[in-house]
C-alpha cells in the first residue's frame, strides 16, 4: 500500500476535481501485475487502469488495441464483459475505497464485484457521501475486504477535500535551492514537467508583478505531457502598480487570459483549483488563502532548511518525493482544515 501511496503522490492534483488514487493488482502468488493511478478527471479511474494492465499479464488474448486507454466507458465495459474469471485469485490494493455511484460510468465497486477478485485491500474509507458504499457492496458480493485506515492514504485526499468542501483549493508552489535561494532556473526536467502538467489542470496561475517584470516568465505548458495540453490555465498578476508592460512574454501565449490585480481581494482565490508561484514574501501576503504549500528543492548548494523558520509553524509536512535531483515536499496549511 505504501507503494500505491507513493505512486499516487506522483500525480497529486492532476486528477482534480477528483481525488488522487492509485491501485495495485497482485496475482494469486502476490506477484505484481500492475500499479496505476487516476491520471486526469474524465478518464478511467485507477482501478480500471490497473485492471487493464493486469488483464494483459493474465490473459492469453491481449486487451484490444483499438480501445483507447483513456476511454473510461470502453475500458470499463470490456473488463466487465470479458474478464473470463482471470482475477478470481487476485488481490486488489487501492488507496481509496472503490466508488459506488453512477457518474459517467458505473461504479468501480460494481466492476470489482463482476470480476470477483479474492480480496480487496483499501487504504482509506470513502468520505464523500455520493460515492460511499463500495466496501459494503464488495462484502455483499462475497469478496474479502481489508481496510487499513492509513493516515498516509487520508493525506492523499487533502486537495480533493478542500475543493469538494470549500469549492476552492489554493496551492502555493515555490522552487528553491537548498540555501534558500529561489532566483533563476532551478527545477530539473521531471520537476518542470510536473509543474507544466499542473498548469493544464489549474484554473488560474497567480504570480507577483515583481516576478513578471524581473523574471519575464512565459508561464506556458510546453513541457507538459500531451494529456495535459488540452487547455492552459489563465494568469493573474498581483501588482500595486496598475501599469504593466504588455510586451512581457506571458502576454504572448494564445488561448488564455491574463488579469492584472492591484489588491489581494481581486485575485480569483475563492473558486476552483489555483496555483500561486512565487517567493516567501508573496506567501506571507496570501497565507490566509493557502491550503497547501509545495516546495521544489534542488540540491545545488549547501544544505539549508527549505522553509524559513518564521513560516514553519503554519505548515504540516504531508509527503516528500524525489524527482531526479529535486525534492518535492507537500505541506498542508494549519490555517485551513477542510
What does this entry look like structurally?
Residues 177-182 have low confidence and may be disordered. The protein is of the alpha/beta class and 338 residues long. The strands form 2 sheets. It has an 8-stranded mixed beta sheet, sandwiched between helices. It has a 5-stranded mixed beta sheet with strand order 2-1-3-4-5. α2 crosses α3 (72-82) and α4 (108-115) runs parallel beside α5. 40% of the residues are buried. 26% of the residues lie in helices and 24% in strands. The chain has helices at 2-9, 46-58, 72-82, 108-115, 134-140, 151-155, 158-166, 189-199, 209-214, 280-286, 309-312; strands at residues 22-26, 32-37, 91-96, 119-124, 144-147, 168-177, 204-208, 234-238, 258-261, 272-277, 292-298, 315-323, 326-333.
Please describe the structure with a list of short key phrases separated by commas or semicolons.
338 residues, alpha/beta, eight-stranded mixed beta sheet, five-stranded mixed beta sheet
Show the helix and strand layout.
Layout: H1 2-9, E1 22-26, E2 32-37, H2 46-58, H3 72-82, E3 91-96, H4 108-115, E4 119-124, H5 134-140, E5 144-147, H6 151-155, H7 158-166, E6 168-177, H8 189-199, E7 204-208, H9 209-214, E8 234-238, E9 258-261, E10 272-277, H10 280-286, E11 292-298, H11 309-312, E12 315-323, E13 326-333
Helix pairs in contact: 2-3, 4-5
Supply the helix-strand structural class: alpha/beta
Annotation, overall tally of beta strands: 13
Helix coverage percent of residues? 25-40%
What summary fits the major beta sheet?
Answer: 8 strands, mixed
Question: What fraction strand?
Answer: 15-25%
Strand order of the largest sheet: 9-8-7-10-6-11-13-12
Radius of gyration (CA) equals 21 Å
Spans where pLDDT lies below 50 across 5 or more residues: 177-182
Order of helices and strands: HEEHHEHEHEHHEHEHEEEHEHEE
The overall average pLDDT, rounded, is 90
Q: Count of DSSP helices?
A: 11
Give the end-to-end Cα distance, rounded to a whole number of Å.
24 Å
Shape: elongated
